[in-house]
Amino acid sequence: MVYKACRKCRKIVEEDDSEPKEIIKECPICGGNVFTTFWKGNALIIDPENSDVAKAMEVKTPGRYALRLSRWIKMNIELEKQRNELLHRTTIIAKIKGNKTPSRKELLSKVAAMLGADEKLIVIDKIGQDFGRQSSIAYLKVYDTINYLKELELKYKIKRTGETEEKKPEVKE
What we know:
It is a single chain. By secondary structure, the chain is α+β, with helices and mostly antiparallel strands. The protein has two domains: 2-69, Rubrerythrin, domain 2 (Single Sheet); 75-161, 2-Layer Sandwich (Alpha-Beta Plaits), CATH 3.30.70. It contains four helices and nine strands, in the order E-E-E-E-H-E-E-E-H-E-E-H-H. It has helices at residues 52-57, 104-115, 146-152, 155-161; strands at 2-6, 12-15, 35-36, 39-45, 63-69, 75-84, 89-98, 122-129, 135-143. It has a four-stranded antiparallel beta sheet. Strand 8 and strand 9 (135-143) form a beta hairpin. The longest helix is centred in the middle third of the chain and has 12 residues, at 104-115. 18% of the residues are buried.
């Protein structure tokens, strides 16, 4: 299970990460479509009408809510897509305008939300920025399946973007 918080109302939703993957595209409370996995603390609101916490958070519907979301970096992203059927992937050029160059994690979650794609199928090839400008360009690849990603992509790029499978603990004998 992956727990994500809506950026608009802070409602925490569960996303099943098993196959077939069920991606949540819309918040059940506010209808927002941008979620984050970067949140801290949670409050379980049972009776919003009599709860001081619910009033302070401006919550009107019972449920589980994030207390604090990560700092939101204001960035405007334009995507250019090019499909490559032979390699079973879509190449994306992302033009990013913002105060700073986003981290790979921030860029990965934002682009995955924009495309409605699984973060595990996206590889960030390169993020570049011209000196003194408040814009950067990122090159990404979105694969059709995890098997094509593992077969075609360089291992260090997969590892740098984010592990595609959980590490198994080592057993000492």
